[in-house]
Amino acid sequence: MNITFFGAARTVTGSQHLLTLDDKRILLDCGLFQGRREEANRINRTFPFDPATIDVVILSHAHIDHSGNLPSLVKNGFTGKIFATPATRDLCSIMLTDSAMIQMKDADYLLRHKGIIVDPLYTLDDVIQVMSQFQSVPYNMEFEPIKGFKVEFFDAGHLLGSAITKMTWQENGVQKRLAFTGDVGRSNRPILKDPQLFGDVDYLICESTYGGRIHEEEDNLRGELLRIINDTIYKRGKLIIPAFSVGRTQDIVYYLNDLSNHHLLPNIPVYVDSPLAISATHVFRLHPECYNESIRTLLFSDPDPFDFRGLKYTREVVESKKINRQKKSCIIIAGSGMCEAGRVLHHLSHEISKERNTVLFLGYNAPYTLGRKIAQGDKYVNILGDSHKVRATVESLSGLSAHADHNELLEYLSHLNTTTVKKVFLVHGELDHQEALKTALVERGFGDVSIPSKGDSVNI
Ligand SMILES: [Zn+2]
After folding, report:
1. Span from the CA of 174 to the centroid of ligand 1 (angstroms)
2. pLDDT, tens digit, for every residue of 316-366?
3. Ligand 1 midpoint to CA 338 (Å)
4. In sequence order, what E strands does 198-343 have?
5. For 132-161, how does the pLDDT look when each residue is reduced to its tens digit (9 = 90+)?
6. Based on the number of CB atoms within 10 Å of its own CB, is 287 exposed (0-12), middle (13-18) or buried (19 or more)?
7. CA of 159 relative to ligand 1 center, distance in Å
8. Could you give all domains of the chain from N- to C-terminal order, each with its CATH number?
9. How far is the CA of 310 from the centre of ligand 1 (A)?
10. Rounded distance from Cα 307 to ligand 1 centre (Å)
11. Using one digit for the tens of pLDDT, what is the confidence trace for 212-263?
12. CA dihedral 283, 288, 291, 297 (to 10 degrees)
């Protein structure tokens, strides 16, 4: 078998790895590259191979940096099946639709405001075609997408439906096993199960996003959340929580629901102001097979952990605008998580200059994003073209990260027999983080750990 690393090589987006076995070609993930506009455009529009020659795609999970360029693949001639878990398929349906709408609106904006004619990267028609090529396979059920090439999904505990893919095949009478981690989650998270162990392999393609970095301990996440809510109410302010619509929003709603069940949540309105989050929450409700023990137990006493008294999901723009006019204390959860787009911008532009309000960040903010500027304490920020003085209190809680950190990844990989693993390839990380993880893996007995560059090809 030959592996070529075409994306998420020494970077964190655009996950895409091509396996060639005899005359068959298998693509692991087909993510959208995210970065500077021109570079992203060029990379996402041009595949380094002919999509028509790909036999099957195996998809680790629905995050756009792993699934978001599937519509381009199909648009450029891919006609094979896309294998993924049922929850990944369902999340892709809403997330790729959302992504297509963004591409179409972008093209429209450029035409109307700058007179530039561009073809959207893909459209809703391409997404519909992608959905018709999906084939769902549950966790822990071996399947054979190509004769003699066996595949099994293990729960990665990172996002609803996320999978670690284990592949087994024979070459020259020798059995070989390769695992691709996709993104690895963490133990003891609010909704999802712990990452599942996948057993011995000969080769491993492993993510390295948090190599060398440790998540802050959040012993008392519920307590801290409650303190921030109460502090804001004391000031008669609003609490604005920028959150990713898929995953993070459901986590925070789950925590608020828990506070409500314990009669600790003050009686104020809570708004989830994001159409994508509303659709994603429906998908979460449809997939209890991905739930961990604690949420399953909870279901006996609380049939809907994504709803509680005072919670309102707002889909329409007119409802969203009403929230801005509300004078009383409330909690507003809105996308996007790093404040780069979405309804959270309107809420921030209305509220960030008022001392009584609070902005709460739940995770990582990439450099140069509005989220990063607010979180790092900039006194003035530009929102939707206007400068605003930041007078609101800014807080952050990092205990909700969906990625295993350095130690958690090492702990998770400790179930592997290091003498059996012949090669480890680190992907999906910035180089310095990858180097840190590589050093730690070598110290723990993994003999051959490499960090492929984009386009590197290896025979295994
Ligand atoms: Zn992910």
Report:
1. 33
2. 999 999 998 888 999 999 998 889 888 999 999 999 999 999 999 997 787
3. 15
4. 203-207, 238-242, 270-272, 311-313, 330-334
5. 999 999 999 999 999 999 999 999 999 999
6. middle
7. 7
8. 2-213+402-459 (3.60.15.10), 221-396 (3.40.50.10890)
9. 31
10. 25
11. 988 877 668 888 999 999 999 999 999 999 999 999 999 999 999 999 999 9
12. 130
pLDDT per residue as tens digits for the range 373-409 = 999 999 999 998 899 999 999 999 878 888 999 999 9
Cα atoms found within 13 Å of the Cα of residue 355, Cβ hemisphere only: 1
Quote the ligand 1 centre to 61 CA distance (angstroms): 7
Predicted model pTM: 0.91
The pair of three-digit structure tokens given for residue 227, joined into one six-digit string: 């303190």
The yes-or-no verdict on residue 40 having pLDDT over 90 is no
Spacing, Cα 205 to ligand 1 middle (Å): 15
**CA 113 to centroid of ligand 1, rounded, Å:** 34
> What region does 433 belong to: left with phi over 0, alpha with psi -120 to 50, or beta?
alpha
The length of the chain in residues reads 460
